[in-house]
Amino acid sequence: MAETTDQNKPIIWKELVLGFAVVESCIYHSIRTIPIVTASSAEEVLFTDNLTRLTKLDSDETVKGVLPVPFPTYEVTGAMPAEGKEFSEVLLLGYEYPGVESPDWIEVLKREVANPRRCV
Fold it and tell me: Buried b / exposed e across 73-95, counting CB within 10 Å, b at 16+?
């Protein structure tokens, strides 16, 4: 069994969610939500797409409104270091809401990584 170092441990990130943008698509006749999250440092802005999520709308999409969330609500993402790769795939694991018990995010991450049917 290989020795576990800090470089081999799963990583979990929590980002503050300010609300969810409601986006309508005219082509697909659908509505989706996009979380509006903050970056906690200038470094995070460089390595995440948090600040550009709303600029990635398709040409047929429009923002219809914003759904508020209770404070503090967090978007939880994680990554499992991969052998021989500098960066690992970052997976959306879920959301944490105040007053709601959160799951063991490391276990959720392990299930997501092992799930061959997950969306990519």
Answer: bbbbbbbbeeeeeeeeeebebeb
Residues spanned by the domain of 46: 6-114
67-109, pLDDT tens digit by residue?
A: 999 999 999 999 888 777 766 788 899 999 999 999 999 999 9
| Cβ atoms < 10 Å from Cβ of 17 | 21
Domain count for the chain: 1
Q: Is 10 within a domain?
A: yes
Phi, psi at residue 102, to the nearest 5°? Answer: -90, 150
Residue 82 inside a domain? The answer is yes
